[in-house]
């Protein structure tokens, strides 16, 4: 089992920056692909960024060049650095971990709200 706890959300002005953190327990993040999802009101949850066991990163087109996913193995924490944020980045952001059995995202945090004002 993996427990995930996000933090770092809040209100930020357009063009500003924010860093989200996801503290993991119960399993080492180095053994799993980790991801950040977001869900805006009335929209489906979408994968924003992911980082594989080999540290390969992938990003949604909408955030490429602005967001960076990374992890600290000692702290067992995954980060999402959000730069040059836009009002359309407003959403609840969720940290997720892939199951080693199914290869699908199976573990989720409670989410953290990010609101970008124009």
Task: Kindly describe this structure.
It is built from no helices and eleven strands. The chain is an all-beta fold and 118 residues long. The strands form two sheets. Strands 2, 4, 5, 6, 9, 10 and 11 form a seven-stranded mixed sheet that branches. Strand 9 and strand 10 form a beta hairpin. It is globular and about 40 Å long.
Question: What labels would you give this structure?
Answer:
single chain; 118 residues; mainly beta; 7-stranded mixed β-sheet; 4-stranded antiparallel β-sheet; globular
Stretches where pLDDT is under 50 for at least 5 consecutive residues are none
User: Helical content, roughly?
Assistant: under 10%
Multimeric state: single chain
The coarse overall form would be globular
Q: What is the CA-atom radius of gyration, in angstroms?
A: 13 Å
Separation of the first and last Cα atoms = 40 Å
Number of helices: 0
Helix-strand string: EEEEEEEEEEE
Count the beta strands: 11
Characterize the largest beta sheet: strand count, sense, and whether it forms a barrel.
Answer: 7 strands, mixed
Please state roughly what percent of the residues sit in beta strands, choosing from under 5%, 5-15%, 15-25%, 25-35%, 35-45% or over 45%. over 45%
The secondary structure category is mainly beta
Q: Please tell me the overall pLDDT.
A: 96
């Amino acid at each position: 089992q993996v427990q995930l706890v996000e933090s770092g959300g809040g209100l930020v002005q357009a063009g500003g920056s924010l860093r989200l953190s996801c503290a993991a327990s119960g399993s080492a993040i180095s053994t799993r692909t980790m991801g950040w999802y977001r869900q805006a009101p009335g929209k489906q949850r979408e994968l924003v960024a992911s980082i594989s066991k080999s540290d390969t990163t992938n990003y949604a087109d909408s955030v490429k060049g602005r967001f960076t996913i990374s992890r600290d193995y000692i702290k067992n924490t995954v980060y999402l650095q959000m730069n040059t944020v836009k009002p359309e980045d407003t959403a609840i952001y969720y940290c997720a971990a892939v199951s080693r059995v199914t290869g699908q995202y199976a573990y989720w945090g409670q989410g953290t709200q990010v609101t970008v004002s124009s």
